[in-house]
């Protein structure tokens, strides 16, 4: 059924229908000067890729001197940027970067002096481009318009310009455009006659009329970089004299139809009769096309708006993460003898909605398992515009159990949407802005109007893609009036286009009109929380969730930027930065590690801190999955964030490659559509206790599971089974918070200290948790060993007589110079120390040799696990250089890569004739309530009583005494 915009159909007779169409037509008019494609590329094109003439206009003289009217002298290759062509300025101390620098110490600290030398600049803030330029640059090409294009509309298509473009054909100006997220499309006008012409494009990448925010990932040097250039498809296209200018498709899965809203262009100057054909085909091998729909229409001069209802048959194939069925609608418009043109529109039959506090896909509950995409592309410095590159990214995301990406303060190119459609990824798109740190919304500045214009362009260009499920203005806004402004913006889009869900912003605020909210409240470490967080301030457990946090909201909650757990730099990555962005920051950190004589430990630091990082992410993700009615999470992130002082928060590198300590299948055990969960009240037990653990499941798969019998196994670190059992068989519906039963197991037969693992399997889905069991009764300590917390006369006499002393420092007793000012906690670093003003902890866990005889009674791997929480919470690390140069500890603490100090928790040395084992962990205080401390002390004492306790490094007693306040 076809409805002309001038009819009084039932749709238009309703107030809401009339409002929607009027808003749609108004939006169409608002962006006509900056048209964007909702359709496939036109068939008749003249490719403009290749060599262009070029000139830098750093003094802004080009306009006044009419550079568009003469041939430019330099050359450049497009698509590309100035940086990818080696154009621009050398990096200097005063390079005018785009992006906030919170820690400015690089500019003045002596330790960075070597990196401020002209010609050899190395910055720690973000990846460093080989060249940098901010200002106007001119791109020019001679074009030949074919004779067959005479009298036809011709458009210039610049897929991704960064960012403001002004275009001339010969000496005729064609206008200025400034979209950051959509193509710049320019109609060439009457001057586009057949024959040779000079096409000139001026590109300006400065913040000018509107400020989206210096840290916005659409422009910031923190991520993709503030580049100048033209990338993606660059072409001229001839359109027929009548053509489909825009098509917006609105699927309705209940009615099994799609409503098609069209704008048809008629450039003949008079009303004409035309024929419009529509036919949908499922993009699948051997799929038959649906019946064609053909209709005669009369086109007004200029633009005609139509609404058409296209039936999708008795069983349309739905789109979701499990069934990414993509349809293609062919639209053919012809009039008289004019050449018809067929346009292809991709769409999916899906409904992304809300039921209570959870998301739904086609009426079924779903849970967002997401990460941020922050526009980091080190090879090119700009986002890829080919589908294959995005297919690779989404395939990797899926391999780690994710179904969702949030594009933080930027909008990706068309290829990303096409690839996400095929992969079944749910995308949250943002309108190119992070209005904070120097920018605001709602205060009447030009950005307020720009966000409406940019969002309209984005929806027009990409709104048909089924993967485009969510939209917001952008990230963490500021402004005195930002709440009323963003609420109005939200409600505008809710009324205009119901194909997706909307929230006012990522991070904050939360308003009642939100379809969903994205908030940092539900996560295990808050910004600025330091050592008071769940993971650092409370003994380890897994029985908490976010119900108390989310109870006050009536719509779905997505936890904002969870994780942010750091890992040590992988210096092997440096060689991979062979494109326009270089890891000079890594070179600085590598130098710092070498200066501390620790270069040989770089790989060990990476692997050990990586294992701790994964443990922290597992805790964060499982807390979200345990929360009944929760909406989902967005990691920051699956891959490293290269800016903001370098935030190495990914289990993947910026190249989307793993780092060697966790694989996709391992990650999916706790991050996938179906995850068994265990609510441990604690992670450390005595063998006199009974393990009591409730078990549940989060299941957001394609369909409920028929009757399954959950099984569980408790095994040791070598995989030897100690206990096993089953839980009652049951069917699993879609949702989380589904109780499977309770595991109760006496630990009395665990006679010695053991690291154990609980594995729970529900059909093909398995998850596991490490926990620790220690004997409730410890053996008597050797009377030959003096245990003390002070290097007093008794301890010195013992050492002088050739005896053995276990010196266990009370928490808070170590001097600042010796390490007492190092902010140590259990978790790895949150985000980084540069942008959190040194938020604790500033360390990355422990590194040890698990086969060292001192640790034989305290089972451990080479990295932190839950049994080390007590030690890290009752100690200050020791700066080992304060004891003896090159001293090798039994247990090392991995320091922040910026300071790269040699830190230890446990070391041994000779003091005079005696033997000293120094524990920076308090093993005495509150020992009755600290089974880990008791067990570690026993292990150390047994080592000291054995013949293997033969420390070699001599240390003067004054050095040991100097460690204390």
UniProtKB/TrEMBL annotation:
Keyword Hydrolase: yes
Catalytic activity: Hydrolysis of terminal non-reducing beta-D-galactose residues in beta-D-galactosides
Residues in Glycoside hydrolase family 2 immunoglobulin-like beta-sandwich domain copies: 242-350
N-terminal signal peptide: none
Root EC class: hydrolase
Enzyme Commission number(s): 3.2.1.23
Keyword Hydrolase attached: yes
Alphabetized InterPro entries for the sequence: Bact_Beta-galactosidase, Beta-gal/glucu_dom_sf, Galactose-bd-like_sf, GH, Ig-like_fold, Ig-like_GH2
Entry's family note: Belongs to the glycosyl hydrolase 2 family.
Protein name, entry field: beta-galactosidase
Organism phylogeny: Bacteria, Pseudomonadati, Bacteroidota, Cytophagia, Cytophagales
């Amino acid at each position: 059924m076809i409805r002309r915009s001038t009819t009084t159909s039932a749709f238009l007779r309703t107030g809401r229908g009339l409002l929607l169409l009027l808003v749609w037509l108004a939006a169409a008019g608002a962006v006509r000067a900056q048209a964007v494609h909702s359709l496939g590329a036109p068939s008749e094109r003249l490719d403009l890729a290749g060599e262009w003439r070029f000139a830098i206009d750093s003094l802004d003289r080009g306009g006044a001197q009419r550079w568009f009217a003469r041939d430019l002298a330099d050359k450049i290759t497009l698509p590309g940027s100035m940086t990818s062509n080696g154009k621009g300025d050398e990096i200097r101390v005063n390079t005018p970067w785009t992006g906030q620098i919170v820690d400015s110490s690089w500019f003045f600290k002596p330790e960075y002096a070597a990196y401020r030398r002209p010609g050899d600049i190395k910055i720690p803030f973000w990846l460093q481009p080989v060249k940098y330029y901010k200002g106007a640059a001119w791109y020019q090409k001679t074009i030949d318009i074919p004779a067959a294009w005479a009298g036809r509309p011709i458009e210039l298509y610049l897929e991704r310009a960064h960012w403001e473009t002004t275009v001339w054909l010969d000496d005729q100006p064609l206008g200025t455009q400034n979209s950051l997220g959509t193509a710049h499309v320019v109609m060439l006008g009457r001057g586009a006659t057949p024959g040779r012409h000079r096409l000139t494009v001026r590109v300006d990448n400065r913040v000018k009329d509107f400020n989206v925010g210096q840290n916005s990932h659409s422009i910031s040097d923190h991520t993709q970089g503030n580049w100048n250039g033209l990338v993606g498809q660059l072409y001229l296209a001839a359109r027929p004299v009548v053509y489909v200018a825009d098509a917006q498709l609105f699927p309705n899965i209940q009615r099994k139809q799609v409503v098609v809203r069209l704008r048809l262009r008629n450039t003949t100057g008079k009303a004409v009769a035309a024929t419009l054909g529509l036919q949908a085909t499922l993009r699948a091998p051997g799929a038959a096309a649906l019946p064609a729909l053909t209709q005669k229409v009369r086109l007004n001069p200029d633009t005609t708006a139509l609404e058409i209802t296209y039936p999708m048959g008795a069983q349309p194939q739905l789109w979701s993460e499990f069934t990414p069925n993509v349809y293609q609608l062919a639209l053919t418009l012809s009039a008289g003898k004019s050449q018809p043109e067929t346009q292809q529109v991709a769409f999916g039959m899906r409904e992304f909605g809300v039921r209570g506090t959870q998301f739904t896909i086609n009426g079924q509950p779903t849970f967002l398992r997401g990460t941020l995409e922050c526009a980091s592309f080190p090879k090119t410095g700009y986002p890829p515009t080919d589908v294959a590159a995005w297919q690779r990214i989404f395939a990797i995301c899926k391999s780690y159990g994710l179904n969702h990406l949030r594009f933080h303060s930027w909008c990706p190119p068309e290829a990303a949407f096409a690839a996400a459609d095929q992969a079944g990824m749910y995308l949250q798109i943002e309108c190119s802005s992070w209005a904070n740190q120097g920018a605001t919304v709602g205060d009447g500045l030009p950005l307020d109007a720009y966000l409406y214009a940019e969002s309209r362009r984005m929806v027009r260009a990409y709104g048909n893609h089924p993967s485009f499920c969510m939209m917001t203005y952008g990230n963490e806004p500021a402004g005195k009036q930002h709440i009323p402004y963003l609420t109005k913006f939200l409600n505008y889009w809710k009324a205009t286009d119901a194909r997706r869900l909307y929230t006012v912003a990522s991070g904050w605020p939360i308003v009642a009109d939100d379809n969903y909210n994205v908030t940092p409240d539900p996560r295990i470490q808050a910004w600025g929380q330091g050592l008071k967080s769940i993971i650092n301030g409370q003994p380890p457990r897994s029985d908490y969730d976010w119900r108390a946090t989310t109870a006050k909201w009536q719509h779905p909650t997505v936890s904002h930027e969870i994780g942010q757990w750091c890992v040590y730099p992988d210096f092997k990555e440096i060689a991979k930065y062979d494109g326009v962005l270089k890891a000079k920051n890594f070179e600085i950190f590598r130098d710092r590690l070498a200066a501390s004589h620790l270069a040989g430990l770089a790989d060990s630091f990476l692997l050990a801190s990586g294992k701790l990082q994964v443990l922290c992410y597992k805790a964060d993700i499982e807390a979200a999955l345990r929360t009944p009615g929760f909406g989902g999470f967005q990691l920051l992130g699956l891959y490293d964030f290269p800016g903001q002082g370098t935030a190495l928060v990914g289990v993947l590198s910026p190249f989307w490659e793993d780092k060697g300590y966790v694989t996709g299948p391992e990650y999916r055990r706790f991050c996938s559509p179906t995850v068994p969960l265990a609510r441990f009240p604690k992670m450390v037990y005595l063998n006199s206790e009974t393990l009591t653990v409730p078990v549940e499941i989060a299941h957001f798969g394609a369909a409920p599971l028929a009757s399954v019998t959950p099984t569980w196994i408790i095994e040791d670190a070598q995989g030897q089974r100690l206990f096993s059992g089953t839980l009652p068989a049951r069917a699993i519906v879609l949702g989380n918070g589904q109780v499977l039963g309770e595991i109760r197991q006496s630990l009395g037969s665990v006679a010695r200290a053991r690291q154990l693992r609980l594995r729970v399997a529900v059909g093909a889905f398995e998850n596991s948790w490490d926990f620790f069991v220690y004997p409730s009764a410890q053996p008597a300590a050797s009377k030959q060993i003096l245990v003390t917390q002070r290097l007093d006369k008794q301890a010195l006499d013992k050492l002088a007589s050739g005896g053995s002393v276990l010196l266990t420092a009370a928490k808070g007793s170590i001097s600042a110079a010796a390490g007492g000012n190092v902010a140590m906690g259990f978790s790895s670093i949150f985000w980084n120390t540069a942008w959190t003003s040194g938020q604790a902890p500033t360390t990355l866990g422990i590194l040890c040799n698990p086969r060292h005889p001192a640790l034989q009674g305290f089972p451990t791997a080479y990295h932190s696990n839950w049994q080390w929480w007590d030690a890290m919470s009752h100690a200050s690390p020791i700066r080992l250089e304060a004891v003896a140069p090159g001293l090798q500890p039994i247990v090392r603490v991995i320091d922040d890569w910026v300071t790269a100090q040699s830190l230890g928790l446990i070391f041994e040395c000779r003091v005079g004739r005696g033997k000293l084992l120094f524990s920076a962990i308090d093993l005495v205080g509150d020992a009755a309530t600290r089974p880990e401390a008791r067990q570690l002390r026993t292990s150390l004492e047994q080592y000291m009583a054995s013949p293997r306790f033969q420390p070699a490094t001599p240390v003067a007693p004054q050095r040991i005494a100097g460690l204390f306040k």
